[in-house]
Design brief:
The protein has 401 residues and is of the alpha+beta class. The protein has a single domain (2-400), classed as L-amino peptidase D-ALA esterase/amidase (4-Layer Sandwich), CATH 3.60.70.12. It is built from nine helices and 15 strands. Strands 3, 4, 9, 10, 11, 12 and 13 form a seven-stranded mixed beta sheet that branches. The longest helix is centred in the first third of the chain and has 25 residues, at 2-26.
Length: 401
Amino acid sequence: MRDSHLNCTRVVLLAFCCLLTQSLSAHATDPQDPRMRARDLGIVIGSYPTGPLNAITDVAGVKVGHTTLIKGEGPLKPGEGPVRTGVTVVIPRDDVWNKKVPAGSFVLNGTGEMTGLAWVAEAGFLEYPIALTNTLNVPRVANGVMSWMIRRYPDIGISDDTLTPVVAECDDGRLNDIQGRHVSEEDVMSALDGASTGPVSEGTVGAGTGMVSYGFKGGIGTSSRRTLGEGGYMIGVLVNANHGRRHELIVGGVPVGRLYETSARIGSVADASAPGAGEGSIIIVIATDAPLDGRQLTRLAKRAALGLARTGSTARHGSGDFILAFSTANVIPHYPKDSTYQLMHLSDTHLNPLIAATVEATEEAILNALTMATTVEGRDQHRIESISLARLRTLLGERTK
């Protein structure tokens, strides 16, 4: 009996060690180059102050949740693995079904998908969470959002309205067994149940687990800004960065991508390659507590494209660049009893600070995705290196002397 117990213990320990080895292999960190956010590296973008968390959750009531899936290694076995993927969710407010938020969107380049935008454009509001995932997982993630909503609102589709979830995708097939569609309904509901208003995990997490940006490991990034003067409104941005080519990357106005390639050629030949540096995609979600309507939020969404451009992106032919913005300042009732209801509305002539704040927060969120991401080895031993923060410091220091 004792030998049986010891053998069982050995099996459990062996399984744990195997899982630990896989996780470390897939999600590598260099102890000599610990990951840091851009601002902690001395990269200060723009002039507006950040919120306390420098995250989209600085907008009161906004929640973010992730489910990260890392499993297996070695050759690709379609439908089985290796798995390097996940889902990220943004919940605009509690009970957003009955207390809808004004919303607007903009598609800079449409080689991709964000479902539900036709209804957002028509209605001018958002009434459920936003989910981010990989391309082939969109239908399953939509099912997860619907199941979560029906669990909370059991009259949906019976005596209540139906819903068309907002699910945005990027292609993580360079690292992940994307055919396997490994994000389940349960994974989506877990991310939604675990979503919080606190600090947001960035880089190789959730929907960003298998993403590549500017030839480096990309993924989830976030940032926020508070406008000054009357109102003091908050802007928060979250991105899933899977876009750009290495030579395009600009950090704080410095052509880091080109300089990085040059220094890599002088140093290690292996560093000179840019695996997975394709055209890619980016998803940008903007939240604000400024009292804006759908039209004004669409205008803000357009300005996020300028923040994207400041990091070097040219929205290439094969890039899917989708931007969604919402405001928590007003409540649009689900089924108003009265024929009219009142909304607070910011004058267009006071939009400029919010426009600038959106551009700044978008740029910094993308940089945070890069500086927080960790090196990942995925299917077929494809390895996407994270940007070296030591080299980044050197390149920025040399150009700013």
